[in-house]
Amino acid sequence: MIPPALLMNRPFYRRHYAAAVMLLLALAPARLAAAPAPGKAGIQFSCMVWEHHEGPTLFYRDGEAYLPLKLRAGNRSQLYPLKNAHAFELFVAAVDSDGKPIYNPVGRAALVAGTGRMLFMIDPLGNPADLKFRVIGMDDALETFPPGTFRFANFTTTPLQVKFGGQVNPLPAAGMKVVKSNVSAKGGFLPFILGNSTGKIVFETRLFGQPTGRDIVFIGGSSTGGEIKVKFLTEIIPPEVPEPKG
């Protein structure tokens, strides 16, 4: 995967947040629903931030428990369980007027019904010192986004065309598309070309695909003459080890 360090900036994410919300709603409008009732299996989730979080530790609530999150800039966190909740909620620790420990809410996102795994993107709202966060979530199940694929997310407000993996796919404004890379077991670089609605090339590079990897390609900026900005989020899924026979 081409390192995206120069492209990982907060203005990209903030500028296209509204498009991101539209993207998620357009992707699955009927599935942004209540979580499983408490006591059921629940989900697993990971989080991501584009920049290092320098504020106090963020906690999430699972039932009556407040559990800390460890975040890594530009990467997924570890997987966390969420078993007894109807939404993903962020908190920071504080004390009340009597000196008793409390947790103040600082962000919230709906859960996608029917999935067992989600990815939550966390971004500060306004001044980071205000401790308010936008949180948006997407279905991150391996069944819908398997290894060996790329998920292209159009954060612009205009339709695009994606040429990748030997095929051309339309990518609606604020839409997503999962495409198989079809690379060999060793992996390899593949041309990635973005065109606008008239077919004019607005961005091109080469992406490294591998059978055990899955990559989200975030596309932002103007597709009508301005600069297209692209960022990447990669995850390697270890292959399952077959059980010994006998």
Layout of secondary structure:
Blueprint: H1 10-15, H2 17-27, E1 32-33, E2 43-48, E3 59-62, E4 65-68, E5 80-82, E6 87-95, E7 101-112, E8 117-124, E9 133-139, E10 149-154, E11 160-164, E12 167-171, E13 176-180, E14 188-195, E15 201-209, E16 213-221, E17 228-236
Parallel strand pairs: 2-8, 10-16
Antiparallel strand pairs: 1-7, 2-5, 3-4, 3-6, 6-7, 8-9, 10-13, 11-12, 11-14, 14-15, 16-17
Biggest sheet statistics = 5 strands, antiparallel
Number of helices: 2
Instruction: Work out the number of β strands.
Output: 17
* Structural class determined from secondary elements: mainly beta
- pLDDT < 50 stretches: 1-15, 17-22, 24-39
Rg on CA atoms, Å: 19 Å
Strands of the biggest beta sheet: in what spatial order? 1-7-6-3-4
Any overview of this molecule?
The chain is built from 2 helices and 17 strands. It is mostly beta strands. The N and C termini lie far apart (40 Å). The relative contact order is 0.17.
Structural features:
single chain; 246 residues; mainly beta; five-stranded antiparallel sheet; four-stranded mixed sheet; 2 helices; 7% helix
Describe the structure concisely for a colleague:
The chain is mainly β. Helix content is 7%, strand content 45%. Mean pLDDT is 83; it is low at 1-15, 17-22 and 24-39.
